[in-house]
Amino acid sequence: MRKPTTTMRSLFLDELTTTEVEAYLKRGGRTALIPAGSVEMHGPHMPIGTDTIIARAFSIRLAAETDGIVFPDVAYSWAGATEGFAGTVSVPPEKFMELVTLIAVKAWKMGFRRIAVVSVHGPNDDMMFLCVRRLFEVHGVPAQYLNPWRVQTPEAAELFAGKWADGKEVSLMLAALDVLGKSRLYSEKELAHDDPAPPLLANRMGFKGVTGFFYQDMRHHVAPTRYTSKARGQKFFDLQVKPYAASIKALDKYVRLAKRQKNQGWFR
Predict the structure, then answer these.
(1) 266 lies in a domain?
(2) Domain span at residue 236?
(3) 215 pLDDT tier (thresholds 50, 70, 90)
């Protein structure tokens, strides 16, 4: 991992003192990474905090590339189909959105000008799309939502193409634990085995639109697969970090230009 451009005792906000954060902002630091995850069942074999673990690890990699600070996780979000399984703690979507909005607005008021929410939890896509749009329209805060699951290079796409697709999440989780210094918790040997899921009822019905559903088997969410590779997960992180870091850095210019555009909506 590349080291930050200046020395701080930590890249995590909650491990810094107030005076250290003040010094960071005074010297021109301006990047806030907000990991957003979920607290939900992740198959019979993966940790309940998988989405949060991946978001936190990718955020720390981004912080090292952008001279950023990683805010505490927003772990609780709307779980959806995993509701009802032991360990899943779901909150209403609007509450999750409200919390992320409040955090981003406070970060902006502190002086952070590059604000990015990072998440791989699928349902967060819709909620964070609305959240960052409303942050700009209502509060004048130009934040970004980044989902590192989405491939940014052909090389990254190839890593989990074909038979490896089913092992993407578990592989990223293993890589994330390595970044966070917690690789002892789960091993590739422990997780790499086949245990396919039974058919999902909603899929068998042939629906052409959206409907609500609950998973009936833990494997409906993530089924164990032999196509599990920490090395592929680590390589995926390596390939994804620079494109997303460049996107965060582009906020510098966007913030300047957004202030000068003629139509400011009703915000002003």
Answers:
(1) no
(2) 22-253
(3) very high
Can you give the CATH number for the domain in which 154 is found? 3.40.50.10310
pTM: 0.94
Structurally, the chain folds into a number of domains equal to 1
**Looking at the domain assignment, is residue 117 inside a domain?**
yes
The pLDDT of residue 83 is 96
CA distance 140 to 160: 38
119, 254 contact by CB (below 8 A): no
- Which stretches of 192-250 are DSSP H helices? 201-204, 230-249
Position 204 pLDDT exceeds 80: no
Is the dihedral angle over the CA atoms 118, 122, 123, 128 positive or is it negative?
Answer: positive
Alpha-carbon distance 62 to 11, whole Å? 10
Query: What type of residue is 176?
Result: A
Any domain includes 42: yes
Tell me, what's the pLDDT at 268?
67
Q: 3-class secondary structure for 93-149?
A: HHHHHHHHHHHHHHHHHHCCCEEEEECCCCCHHHHHHHHHHHHHHHHCCCCEEECCC
The verdict on residue 122 lying in a domain is yes
Percent of the chain with pLDDT over 70: 97
**Backbone phi and psi for residue 185, each to the nearest 5 degrees, phi listed first:** -70, -40
DSSP structural state of residue 235: H
Q: What is the mean pLDDT of the chain?
A: 95
Q: Residue range 18-46: average pLDDT?
A: 97
